[in-house]
């Protein structure tokens, strides 16, 4: 990944690291030679000056080197981070369904991958080079030390081995601890987000639950802190023992060399070299431990990143999918059984229903009956556990999900409100039309939101957000993971310059819903239009307008409408009533009223609401109900 992110930086990082590795040994040897020259009483001006020059050069490099290495390391880390992030999210796009995003353990993995995946490759490269650098420095000092005392060299190395083993064990424990506290940290993050979330703010204030949620957030942090403290204390204990052992070995060696020098058994330069070498070997040994442990721990954490990258697809996609041709006959659910996981109850039980080509089918039923679940299966967000969903007789499992979805236009019950411009909010419905102002406006007009959007401060370019300041700019576009994303144009495109500039605009619930509808309309005449509660947030007039539009629009088109407002579904060609995950009844509006089952009951209850005794024109709806019957 480092190589792919930037070859030049990786090479520069490697070369600089090696240069920094030989500096301390060069300085120690030059110092020894200068001291020996002086102590020997025969200093040659040329030699001393040359050694002095080398020492001065090394001094400059020692002063400058770390900053340059740090810059190269950071720059390289930034680029690797971008590649890693792109790879990670590319991998999450491979999950064509929703199940992975509802699996808490997998969400923890994604969070760990996000947290460590971006930084890890850079840190591993840096730790690997750091290991090579400290190993080189250490080897240089070790050889120097061995020229004075092979025993001392062996003693210092011997003292470092247990330390390395202990640190590797500790790093494994730390990685396990970080994985263990993952869910706790995710909950802490959730409560933290909630406390500053504009949508949650109303309830938080009205119910006065801010302090309660803060308490829950702090409890998560305390639990995580307790685990971290325990790990830190364990590390402190182990490191105290290994550091003391190393210090005792160095002290014993120093004593020995001083006694030898005092007895005339060594040159003054040897003492200086010995002191530098012992300190150098020990610094290299502990540096080596730190670098190796960092790399080891990062590699362990990187496992989560790889686990996401290597995760099996959540839904099998055929190697050679059958083409999802234009709908000709219709869509059929055939004896479909589905539950969200083996631990969940059945959401659909032996559901069989048909959406014939060119007809408008409506789904009705109480909350939790399974209506939205049918929608998710039609878009192949999940596969049925038993039975099948057929597109013109072909099982959805045999089609390419992307091709299938390209044939569907949908407004989901839990539609998205993107913190982007109004044009982008609509344009995301069909990226090909993102820059086609004409098409975007036409879709907005059809959804009855053009008037609102054109009245905004910057019309279609107004940022619809309260979480991002500024009036918005087009996004980064196609800037890839490569170096292009670093350009100034890229940053300006991301609207970074405008941060803190203006005010974002927030729409009302119904206006957002109309935008979601416009997003679906932008997709044009797709083979299947799914509308899951498309007008729940609209005022009566708007709802009437929308349904009127839909009636005209869906003529001769295949559509599936879900609505609790049964007045909106009565015109459907066919109404399917679900109850407890099963098809309870189906037929036309009049047929179902005559059947006097669930539909008739729900319809009567709704109609009842409009004809309270004493209301003006109270009889009008009753007349309509009798008419309907
Ligand atoms: N992601 C999910 N994971 C687990 N269970 C789910 C999930 N989504 C829905 N369910 C369950 O599946 C059942 C059917 O839900 P579904 O959303 O399809 O009902 P619905 O008929 O659309 O309800 P509503 O009218 O309230 O929108 C419910 O019991 C619900 O609790």
TrEMBL record:
Record bears the keyword Isomerase: no
Q: How does it sit in the membrane?
A: Multi-pass membrane protein
Q: Where are the transmembrane segments?
A: 44-69, 236-259, 271-293
- Keywords, sorted A to Z: ATP-binding, Membrane, Nucleotide-binding, Transmembrane, Transmembrane helix
> Gene3D superfamilies this protein is in?
ABC transporter type 1, transmembrane domain, P-loop containing nucleotide triphosphate hydrolases
Residues annotated as domain ABC transporter: 331-605
- Where does the record place it? Cell membrane
Any GO molecular function: ATP binding
- Which protein is depicted? ABC transporter ATP-binding protein
User: Can you name the source organism?
Assistant: Microbispora bryophytorum subsp. camponoti
